[in-house]
Write a structure and sequence with these properties.
The structure holds 2 protein chains of 2 kinds.
Chain A (H helix, E strand, L loop, with lengths): L1 H7 L1 H26 L6 H12 L2 H33 L13 H4 L1 H21 L7 H9 L2 H29 L7 H27 L10
Helix pairs in contact in A: 1-2, 2-4, 2-8, 4-6, 6-8, 8-9
Chain B lengths: L2 E10 L8 E11 L4 H14 L22 E2 L2 E2 L21 E5 L8 E3 L2 E2 L2 H10 L19 H11 L6 H5 L6 H12 L8 H14 L10 H5 L7 H16 L2
Parallel strand pairs in B: 1-5
Antiparallel strand pairs in B: 1-2, 3-4, 3-5, 6-7
Helix pairs in contact in B: 2-6, 3-5, 5-6, 5-8, 6-8
The chains are: A mainly alpha, B alpha+beta.
The complex binds protoporphyrin IX containing FE and FE2/S2 (inorganic) cluster (FES).
């Protein structure tokens, strides 16, 4: 069957890797946009959170969909990563001529770090707080811990490194590699990770630097 | 005439089932004008004179066009000089006192025949699966009957420059044959004669590539960096597009 054959093939597996990566990216973009409300103050952020919770069915559907995409991405990504580790060690001496391979070589590790982050993130902000504490208060409390904020910052750096190779890799896998797109893709390969790093990484920095002290007053 | 002394660590293996290992050889007074294969010839004469078995390696044209030769030299396919087949590598690329580690092109799909000689017929079977155009009847067509722009002809020629040496497979961290297969698909896919079988070609060749046991692609770009013919990973992107179309809309 054509679909089954496609899924089994080397390029088919890469296609689902890229597709799941793209969906995760789309989610991240929406999430970043929503979280940016933190910079406006707790009132706006609380409003955004309450607004989302007016649509419990939508939130549930989105969570289940996102979870499945993530599982697909992780299972495929790790199987590719483990296979790569087996195959790379076949020489006594092996040299790389490609420049800047740090991001591509560490995809599995940065990916696993993001997974660790996601587990901690979801348990902290989705499952742990009782329904009686407003989310804006929980955010304020958690980020007042230096190490918690630092962990967030490191995670976003890992995400940035993951996306630095991930974005280029995704475009190439989808078949976008043509002189016409070279410039756009090389700009986005840097701009997309940096944009996420600035918006997400800014949140722990905002609280660490003391600028977040006014968070509850707005 | 400038000469250099070298230490060679060469992989020796009787056949695919035998256990292999490195042997170390000292070579003196090697002319820097020699090619890498001539240097190995000198070593083999020395070994023969000592009553030992010479090092087996593949070669044919010795002018960089047949794709027979190839080995990893200090971890790089065809050695340290870019855009070069092993037979066109010259000893002036090295300094006296250098140690060269020489290994065969390794891949799950390339069984070792002997020493540095590997069986690359897996690549031939990928071609047989679809790397052709079928012209079943009729007389020879006039050379200029089908107009092709010179840009297209040049691009197709860039991919046709692939000699099938296997350096892309050997240098890929994932042991993938994507650059080779992509080049063969691109070469035909750019030309009008390649259109009728285009979708089916990608599907058949990729299926064969997977069957041979080659790895997947994680876009490391190492194949492109080590290819002696400078084939670009754009050809892999084109193969992906053709493969999607072939899988979705093929016969
Ligand atoms: C929000 C989180 C994540 C995003 C936005 C994301 C995004 C991406 C993207 C866009 C790609 C490129 C796909 C391609 O090569 O075509 C990718 C590849 C990859 N991801 Fe993620 N990812 C995330 C989380 C994870 C996690 C949790 C893992 C767990 C191990 C992971 C492991 C991998 C691996 C190993 C690859 C590379 C596969 C290869 O070698 O080509 N990722 N990711
Ligand atoms: S011997 Fe023909 S390419 Fe090297």
């Amino acid at each position: 069957m054509w679909f089954f054959n496609f899924c089994k093939s080397s390029i088919g597996r890469k296609f689902f890797m890229a597709l799941s990566g793209l969906l995760l990216l789309a989610f991240l973009a929406v999430h970043a946009f929503g979280n940016a409300a933190i910079y406006a103050g707790s009132k706006y952020f609380q409003f955004y959170a309450d607004f989302l919770h007016n649509f419990p069915v939508l939130v549930l559907l989105a969570s289940v969909g996102l979870g499945s995409v993530l599982v697909l991405h992780i299972v495929l990504g790790l199987s590719l990563f483990l296979e790569k580790r087996q195959r790379t060690g076949r020489y006594e001496v092996y040299a790389r001529l490609t420049e800047n391979t740090f991001a591509s070589r560490t995809m599995g590790y940065t990916g696993l770090f993001i997974l660790l982050f996601l587990i901690i993130h979801v348990t902290t902000f989705v499952f742990a707080p009782g329904s009686d504490t407003p989310i804006s208060v929980v955010v304020m409390e958690r980020f007042s811990s230096f190490f918690f904020s630092l962990f967030y910052l490191v995670s976003f750096i890992a995400l940035g490194v993951h996306l630095n190779h991930g974005f280029f890799s995704m475009m190439q896998t989808f078949g976008f590699n043509h002189p016409r797109y070279d410039k756009t893709i090389s700009v986005l390969t840097v701009a997309v990770p940096v944009a996420f790093l600035v918006i997400f990484g800014g949140i722990p920095l905002y609280f660490m630097s003391g600028a977040g002290a006014s968070f509850m007053h707005h | 005439m400038k000469t250099i002394d070298l230490t060679l660590k060469i992989w020796r293996q009787k056949n695919n089932d035998a256990l292999g290992g490195f042997e170390t050889y000292l070579l003196r007074d090697i002319s820097t004008d020699m090619s890498f294969l001539e240097m190995l010839d000198v070593l083999n004469e020395q070994l023969t004179a000592e009553g030992k078995i010479p090092v087996a390696f593949d070669h044919d044209c010795r002018e960089g066009i047949c794709g027979s030769c190839g080995a990893m030299v200090n971890g790089i396919a065809h050695g340290p000089v870019k855009l070069n087949n092993l037979c066109q590598l010259h000893m002036r690329a090295f300094n006296s006192g250098d140690t060269l580690v020489i290994e065969p092109f390794r891949s799950r799909a390339f069984p070792i025949r002997k020493d540095l000689m590997v069986d690359r017929s897996a690549l031939d079977r990928i071609i047989q699966a679809g790397g052709y155009v079928s012209v079943n009847t009729g007389g020879g067509v006039d050379g200029n009957a089908i107009p092709i722009s010179s840009e297209t002809a040049e691009l197709a020629m860039d991919s046709a420059a692939c000699v099938g040496c296997g350096a892309c497979v050997a240098s890929c961290p994932n042991d993938a044959a994507m650059l080779f297969t992509g080049a063969k698909i691109t070469q035909l896919g750019l030309l009008p004669q390649g259109q009728p079988e285009r979708k089916e070609r990608a599907r058949a060749m990729v299926t064969q590539m997977d069957k041979e046991g080659f790895g997947f692609c994680s876009n490391e770009r190492e194949c492109q960096a080590q290819c002696p013919k400078g084939i670009s990973i754009r050809s892999i992107a084109r193969m992906n597009r053709d493969f999607f179309r072939g899988s979705l809309f093929g016969e």
